[in-house]
């Protein structure tokens, strides 16, 4: 008789679910892979900056960590605004500091900004992260501020803080919920007693937003202690709205992972969390390495990549909300010789051509901006003929040169060919070249560029996003690394709400579109040919929402 191992048992339980798991990730993961401080050590680091020992603040706060952070924040505020050590921070963040705790949060964020440089370069942890990147999951919930999870799951859309999660429209797949904030927005970081009071006041609303996840998905808790209040408070809020029967059904859905370096073979046992009068059933996986767990997650079946599934849900949601299927969906036949038992999931075959008959009417300006940075398999001719004339009716910065270049409508100098038959709006947009900066904006851009030695990568290390987006508009053509710009803009794609990109980011994307595709020069010509060759040789995706 075969003995089922703990990991086989876990795999069977996860496969029995109708949905892929969510990860709930805590600080233990950041300590393991980035060697970052835990909460207490982080506060000790900040206390040392003030010139007083950590024990001074801890004793005043009765060892309660959020209160300790509040105590440190008081002298830190005065120090930050006056000490020459923080001159660079003040130059970059003074406009964003609006509270007494702001300077402390800024320096916590700056401490973590270079965290990814500490990623392991070799050894078992590298293998673990490679497996984690392949994990079949629908999303991540985390209380960590650092950028590790965004680097592991670059296609996932991050939601920063409670406000963005509560007042946005997450799709529940392909997303990272940074419920305690992020270093990309220091003011969002939950750190002090006041922050936790506000967070806990909204906890029932957050729990309601997460309820569907906990009911429909397995949730794997990684990097937390079983008694961690960051977890138990949310579980209690969810438990309050579930009946005793439904609460018991969470038994196979909540998996706590405990790392124990002395553990031999992994074990999986039933356990419980008893808190605030509730008994919450969980599975406890104890292991000396995360590799086995990540292998299990990577082996789970997935019909669609999470990024594609999120996009599909987004369009289906719009279909239900606006009730106009003609603009968002096409129903097509499959080939006559396709056997039904060979089909797993079908949304359409040959959809691209069929959509061509009606236009890509579901695509928006935001879709085009994203597509310029991360090309899809859209038909450039259909974009040029159908989408651009419609999108250009509305105000906003819209990329056009990539599509016109792809279908041969542009001359080498970036003007329209004499025989180009295009809509008047498209013709007018081609004639509107990027305008040079003037006045204060031009002076500010040149200062930023000069301080960076004219190097774009150096600039992105020195200044925040808003200054990069301004400075890039003033870079001379021969000094701007276009691929570095593309990677940077893609990495800083904003979470659009409600579906409208920021003006500065859209301007920068359109500048990239113009400099990359308008005037053909050596490097750009090669890239254009390579991309056209890849698009021509690749099989068109069947799903085209």
List keywords for this structure.
single chain, about 550 residues, alpha/beta, Rossmann fold, eight-stranded mixed sheet, 27 helices, disordered C terminus
Summed up, the helix count is 27
Low-confidence spans = 317-323, 325-359, 522-545
The total of beta strands comes to 8
Q: Taking all residues together, what is the mean pLDDT?
A: 83
Ends: how far apart?
Answer: 49 Å
Can you tell me the CATH architecture of the domain at 6-36 and 124-298? 3-Layer(aba) Sandwich
Cα shape: globular
CATH topology of the domain at 6-36 and 124-298: Rossmann fold
Described by strand count, sense and barrel closure, the largest sheet is:
8 strands, mixed
- The CATH class name of the domain at 6-36 and 124-298 reads Alpha Beta
Structural class designation: alpha/beta
Order of strands in the sheet with most strands: 3-4-2-1-5-6-8-7
Q: Which radius of gyration do the C-alpha atoms yield?
A: 26 Å
What fraction strand? 5-15%
Helix content: 40-55%
